[in-house]
Amino acid sequence: MQIDLFAGEHEPEPQAVFHPALQDLTQMQAMLQRWQQRRWLRALDVQLPQTLHQLAAEPNPLLWLLCALLCHQYGRGHSCILLQDLLQDPDGLLSLPPQNQFLQRFTDRPAVVLKGLTIGDFRAALQGCSWLATAGPAPLVLNEDRLYLYRLYQAEQRVKQHLSLMLSTTLPLANAVTAELDILFATPQQTEPDWQRLACVMALQRRFAIITGGPGTGKTTTVVKLLALLQHGAGGALNIKLAAPTGKAAVRLTESISGALTQLPAERARTIPTEVTTLHRLLGAVPNRRSFRHNRDNPLQLEVLVVDEASMVDLEMMAALLDALPEQAQLVLLGDKDQLSSVEAGSVLGDLCRGAELGGYRDDTMALLQAFSAVALDKWRGEGSALNQATVMLRKSHRFDAHSGIGQLAAAVNRGDTGAVELFAQYPDIELFSANQLSILKATVVAGYRQYLQQAQPGPADERDNWARSVLGSYSRFQVLCALRSGDWGVEGVNEQISQWLHSSGIINRQQQWYSGRPVMMQRNNYNLGLMNGDIGITLVDPLSNMLRVVFQLADGSIKWVLPSRLTEVETAFAITVHKSQGSEFNHCCLVLPPDNSPLLSRELLYTGITRAKQHFSLLCAAPALLRQAISRRVARSSGL
Ligand SMILES: Nc1ncnc2c1ncn2[C@@H]1O[C@H](COP(=O)(O)OP(=O)(O)OP(=O)(O)O)[C@@H](O)[C@H]1O
């Protein structure tokens, strides 16, 4: 057979046939409207290109599409869109449509619309576009084929600049540090490195350090010892501040710091603060503004700052925090890198901790750490980034032992082991319900909430704060978590179902919108009230006025009584999303998964849900196959960090 080397030479170039919406702006606008009607996009996503067009006309349909998708991704917590990833798997990257059902039915789904496009087409649509920042500020930024909203790009740049500056200096270690470490850390015969001790050594030497680890691995214990070492070196004169992203997390850190201080010699414990503030309060949030009172021009007054639950800190907050840090201050971030990322855009801790498991310690870091370790550390040697040289991962949980199903389940899910499903049959502290076991779920939920609801009956006037505190304490023993917000199996549907069950069991009377015992969660920060997004309050009859009030515990442990009418943006909290549960722990958690394979079900979501439980974990899941799919799916947020 003869091969015609020149076949095709005279044939016309194949014309790429693009989707009609890419060829006509009116069609693109109509398509975006349809996506909004199907709830694939938010009104805001569709509005953004329209608004920009009014300011500077840009009739390119692809540009409109990119702009709407960028806004959509921002709403889902991504700092940017990586154009290459968008081309590779549009439906997957965008999680559009959000439920996989009937996907093939839509001929205008992202994968079909973007078919045939190349990265060059994206660049061409953006080139010379007046919406794109080239010299000065403009709404969009393209950097190394990552498309950003300007604000997020700015925040990312600021974080990068601050961190590289902080990572470029090392601090001298005092000669007496070994003796001090020996006082604080017991040295039994070891076979594994004492990462808590090594975390202290590393953080003493850095202006920026990260201590990451799962629940109960001793992050708080370690940081308390670190602060004792720092104070000892400075003669107790350091101005140390402790902060957490939410009020709830701040209250929890206050409790665990107080617990950890009891393990220290009294004269050392005295030099360490126990007061924990929220980041918003620390930075001085200005009502209805994005900016803070403390910033580059008005830095914070402190020498050491510890931020707990750092996985909940979003990109813009991290940028604001670093802006406000005085030049010589030391910053230590604590958190679990494997948890879900912040509710707002960014996955700062996850991004910064990439490679933390492997160590990746270079020669100089190895020399430093090895000098303080009785066990050889060669396994963790590598050529990691500057960040790796400032990160220690604590690996041993002191809370969950080998007999704990929660610990085993969390670890298996975290390493993507689909065999995790089998663990439910082996441990008494974890249980799995299928969707047709609703009666068992009902019994679990009613029993779970009964105690706090009984305590919520009108209490004594002279002890009203203590009573409120104990009701809030009882409430935090049990919590239903959902993977999704909307739908029958989301927070909306499950809250409705639970209220019905509790009402029909005679435990609540929900004939009015507000009733005694109603738990509510803040959906936005309210600076006037000093309440933050995610704070949970409980409705009680105030014994002083006999009127309904909602009680919240503030970061300093005090109780705030608020008129329900002042709480406009709250939702019932019998069920809350896993996302919003971050920073909280409950004795017993019950996680409800939807019956279909939503792209939102991921390993990180399961891990975060499981690790909210301290003693008992229940899971409602229609089929084990669904659980295996969720364990196999990872969520990766796009960012340039
Ligand atoms: N090296 C250790 N040896 C024995 N017990 C420890 C050790 N480190 C911590 N613990 C204990 O383990 C428990 C959890 O420690 P800690 O609160 O410091 O962990 P954490 O990582 O901050 O937990 P979480 O993030 O889940 O709140 C505490 O009771 C603490 O006293």
Descriptive account of the structure:
- The chain is α/β, with parallel strands linked by helices and 641 residues long.
- It has 24 helices and 19 strands.
- A six-stranded parallel sheet has the order 6-5-7-8-4-9. Strands 10-19-18-11-17 form a five-stranded parallel sheet. It has a five-stranded antiparallel sheet with strand order 15-14-13-12-16.
- Helix 15 links the parallel strand 7 (304-307) and strand 8.
- Helix 9 runs antiparallel to helix 11, helix 10 (195-204) packs across helix 11 (219-233) and helix 18 runs antiparallel to helix 23.
- The protein is globular.
- The termini are far apart.
- Residues 1-14 have low confidence and may be disordered.
- The protein binds adenosine-5'-triphosphate.
- Adenosine-5'-triphosphate (ATP) is lined by residues 196, 213, 215-221, 256, 260, 398-399.
- Residues 196, 213, 215-221, 256, 260, 398-399 line the site of adenosine-5'-triphosphate.
Strand line-up across the major sheet: 6-5-7-8-4-9
Query: What is the residue-averaged pLDDT?
Result: 88
Count the E strands.
19
Number of helices: 24
- What is the C-alpha radius of gyration, as a whole number of Å? 27 Å
Each distinct ligand: adenosine-5'-triphosphate
- Main β-sheet description: 6 strands, parallel
Structural class: alpha/beta
Terminal CA distance: 55 Å
Strand content: 5-15%
**Unreliable runs:** 1-14
Helix content bin: 25-40%
Question: What form results from the Cα inertia axes?
Answer: globular
